[in-house]
Specification:
This protein is an alpha/beta fold and about 250 residues long. The protein has 2 domains: about 160 residues, Rossmann fold, CATH 3.40.50; about 55 residues, Winged helix-like DNA-binding domain superfamily/Winged helix DNA-binding domain (Arc Repressor Mutant, subunit A), CATH 1.10.10.10. Helix content is about 50%, strand content about 10%. The chain has a 6-stranded parallel beta sheet, with helices on both faces. GO terms for molecular function: DNA binding. It comes from Actinophytocola xanthii. Keywords: DNA-binding, Phosphoprotein, Transcription, Transcription regulation.
């Protein structure tokens, strides 16, 4: 079955661009669009998509937190024009699994949708530096006493989670059943007093976990920027689609 995606943005032209980019992928289906923040939780619970692509200015971060309880199986991918530390931190702590800026290209968007649906945490390539700084603040010294309330196996699992690995990847690497990994992660969440993977990653990376010793300092997990020369993203699709629709005398679906 294709991945189901629900879009939430109050700008019809942006929704059109996203829908155009995602509909071009045979394994992705856009199952609906929302332009009213008050309807986000209700529509998401009713439709149960794999991924909700959401502008937090429409629904607010409280809506993301509410969705954690009402629709825990839905991965929230924040799609925003706000390139701010406070917005990024609020998204992570609200429980968003991914964060993209609205100038992301189509390759980034498609890859992010697939990744968050698979259980990974994704951050757009354009905020690598900011995220790396937030996650490598001096307060996170990674001392030997960090997370002493976790067992050795739980710490090992958390380290892989912080590196951006999905449950299936952790299962393969540690040669453990997927259910065992899920149980470990649930226990880790309880011990860390967090309720989302993104929150656990922030805490773990502040403590020095999840970093490839061969990777440059401050590099964010799970993301490989697309190769240069790829198509320019949803705005191109929006512009072209808008002109074609206007020429044909059509109005874009809301």
């Amino acid at each position: 079955m294709p991945l189901s995606v629900l879009l939430c943005d109050d700008q019809p032209i942006l929704r059109y661009g996203l829908r155009t980019v995602l509909a071009a992928e045979p394994d992705i289906e856009v199952v609906g669009e929302i332009d009213d923040g008050a309807a986000v939780v209700r529509e998401t619970v009713a439709r149960q998509p794999d991924v909700l692509v959401l502008d937090p200015q429409v629904a607010g971060f409280a809506g993301i937190e509410e969705l954690r309880e009402a629709a825990p199986g839905v991965a929230v991918l924040v799609f925003t024009g706000q390139d701010l530390d406070a917005t990024l931190c609020a998204a992570v702590h609200a429980g968003a699994r991914g964060y993209l800026l609205k100038n992301a290209d189509d390759t980034e968007i498609v890859r992010a949708v697939r990744s968050v649906a698979a259980g990974s945490t994704v951050f757009g390539s354009r905020i690598h530096t900011r995220l790396g700084r937030l996650l490598t603040r001096p307060a996170g010294s990674g001392s030997a006493t960090t997370f002493t309330h976790l067992t050795a196996r739980e710490r090992q699992v958390l380290d892989l989670v912080a590196a951006g690995a999905s449950n299936s990847a952790i299962s393969q690497q540690l040669h453990l059943a997927g259910k065992t990994i899920s149980n470990h992660i649930s226990t880790i969440f309880a011990k860390l007093r967090v309720s989302s993977r993104a929150e656990a990653i922030v805490l773990a990376r502040e403590a020095g976990l999840g970093r490839d010793p061969n990777a440059p300092a401050g590099r964010a997990p799970t993301w490989t920027p697309p190769a240069p020369g790829r198509s320019p993203g949803p705005r191109a699709a929006m512009d072209g689609g808008h002109h074609r629709a206007a020429a044909a005398g059509m109005s874009m679906r809301r």
